[in-house]
Structure formats: C-alpha cells, structure tokens
Design a protein that fits this description.
The protein is mainly α. It is built from 16 helices and no strands. Helix 1 packs antiparallel against helix 5 (73-92). It starts with a helix and ends in a 16-residue tail after the last helix.
Length: 328
C-alpha cells in the first residue's frame, strides 16, 4: 500500500471512530432515546434464555450483556454506532469516490438513522456489509450479514430476496435457494409477530412525518441509475444488484400511500442507493471539469438537505441541541 493509500485508510478509520462515538455517547438525542433506555432496563431483568427467545435477540443480547456488566445505554449505542460505521466505511471503500459517498451519508444515514433508530441503524450497517459480499458474487455472505442484521431489527429479512434477484448465474437455483432462506428467516424473525406488525404499521395507518420526502431521496438517484446505468462502469453482479435496488426504491413511492410508516422504515434499507449512484455519477462525463461541477452539485444538494432537515423537520428538535454523555 502506498503512503497516500495508508493515509486515506487512516483517515477513514479516524472518521469512523469519530462518528461511532458521536452516535454512541449522545445524551437524550434522537426520537427513540427513552424507548431504548427502557429496553435496556427490561432486558436487565431477564435470564439469558429469555433474552434469546425474545424479539430482536441480537440487540436484546447486547443490552443484556451491557446490563450484566453494569454499563449504561451509551455502551449499547456505541456498539450500534460501530456497526453502522463499519458497514458504511466498508461499503464506501468499494465506490469510486468514497469520501463523497460518506458525505452523502451524513444528513440522513448517520444523523437521523444512526442517532435515532439504533436497532435499524445496526441492521443497516450489517446489510451494507452484505451488499459488499453480493457485489463480489458471494450470496452466502450476503445472507449471513442480513440474517445477523435481522437479529437487531427483524425488518432486515425483507432484503433477503435481493440475493436471488441480483443473481447473474443459475437463476432458477438462486431463486429456489433464496426463497427457502427468505422463508426460513421470515419464520424465525417475522411470522410470530406478523399480525402485530400489520396492525401497527398498516391498519393503524400511522403517518411517518416526512416519509414521502425520504422515499423520494432514494427514488431520485434510483431514477438516475435506471436511465443512465449504461454509462456506469460496473461488473455484471453490480449492475443487476443496483438495477433491482433502484426498482425497489421506485416501488416505494406509490406504497407510501398505503402505509407511510411501514414504507419509510423499509426504505431505510435502500439508502445505499444514494451513496452508490452519487459516487458514480460524476464519472458519466469524460470531461474533468464537468465531473467537478457534478460533484459540487451533489455536495450542495446534501448541504441543502441537511439545512432543510435542521430548520424545517417536525422532529429535528429531538436531535437539537446535540448533547453528550460528558454533559449529562
């Protein structure tokens, strides 16, 4: 590895550690802060067997271990933050402009999801590990990471069929194998609470504030990819994978009308579409000057996203002011 490459890796590690601690050591920041504190208290009163039999056993086991060690919610959040950042950095390193992809991740993936939805954030980080495996043609690796993510938030199993859809060889076997794995994972993580999930997310018609906006944030780069994917230099595995990820992102737009909350939560797992497309987009031009303009435009777009969320989002006050464990 060259000196510049070593410096780049060191900077990525430093940034990952910085954001992991920012996520983990926050104090009363994020919409679900007190809910996660209650979960930690509840798991501390259970036996190990009860914890493993419950919902989201990976997250609950983490809470149980922390509680038995005398730790606080900051420990749990830090581990979840490390999972988010480990998956994010590994995923970004496969992209042509990793630093641009990281910048794209800051407004929503890191700040809103990482600091607001600890369980689903950890699941998303593990999913991104899986996407790297799938990019390299390792379907079993993708399944492993997604199932592990489902132990933190069971909704992650909804991404398992992507493995079969993105297969470029032996499609029939891939669909059969992927279908069996998906059904098995769904049985383990979802079917036991399917009625409750349907009632909470669909029949109750819960409205996720800003759900349409967040779905459109995925749909815009998805539409760009579907129109311009021929100009992206990708291997067959990548092209098939991101074609389907883009299609799923577009499908989420009309589904918001059925249940904005359910669709919004599922769309969290499609956020990598933003990172992937905008990291590749400048290279559709052979003119370096035009590439620079596209890059500046992407940076400006996400700066605007961050500003609008901070100033106008209904629940942004739950993140403001940012406080840490040291100031508690």
């Amino acid at each position: 590895m060259s000196i510049s490459g070593a410096i780049n890796v060191a900077l990525l590690v430093f940034l990952s550690l910085f954001f992991s601690l920012a996520i983990g050591l926050r104090h009363q920041v994020g919409g679900d802060w007190f809910a996660y504190s209650r979960i930690l208290d509840q798991q501390s009163l259970k036996s190990l067997w009860e914890v493993l039999q419950g919902e989201d056993p990976g997250y609950h086991l983490l809470c149980w271990v922390v509680a038995q060690s005398g730790g606080a919610i900051y420990w749990v959040n830090t581990v979840c933050g490390m999972l988010v950042m480990a998956g994010l950095v590994r995923f970004c390193r496969t992209l042509p402009l990793p630093w641009l992809a990281l910048l794209v991740a800051v407004p929503y993936l890191i700040i809103v999801v990482g600091m607001g939805y600890s369980r689903q954030g950890a699941a998303l980080g593990l999913l991104m590990m899986g996407l790297v495996s799938l990019r390299n043609g390792r379907m079993a690796g993708f399944v492993f990471w997604v199932v592990l993510g489902a132990t933190f938030h069971k909704s992650a199993v909804l991404m398992l069929p992507v493995a079969a859809l993105a297969s470029t060889s032996n499609r029939i076997w891939s669909f059969l194998w992927g279908g069996v794995i998906s059904l098995a994972a769904a049985y383990l993580f979802v079917f036991d609470s399917a009625d409750r999930l349907w009632a909470n997310y669909v029949e109750a018609d819960l409205q996720s504030q800003g759900g349409m906006i967040r779905v459109l944030m995925n749909a815009v780069p998805a539409a760009i990819f579907l129109f311009l994917h021929r100009y992206f230099e990708l291997n067959p595995n990548e092209r098939k994978l991101w074609w389907w990820m883009s299609v799923l992102s577009m499908v989420c737009v009309p589904l918001v009308a059925v249940s904005s909350t359910a669709t919004d939560r599922v769309a969290l797992y499609l956020i990598p579409v933003q990172l992937f497309v905008f990291s590749h987009l400048p290279f559709i031009s052979r003119d370096p000057r035009f590439r620079g303009l596209i890059t500046i435009g992407i940076i400006g777009y996400y700066a605007l996203v961050q500003f609008v969320w901070l100033v106008f989002a209904t629940h942004s006050f739950l993140w403001l002011p940012y406080q840490t464990w040291f100031s508690a």
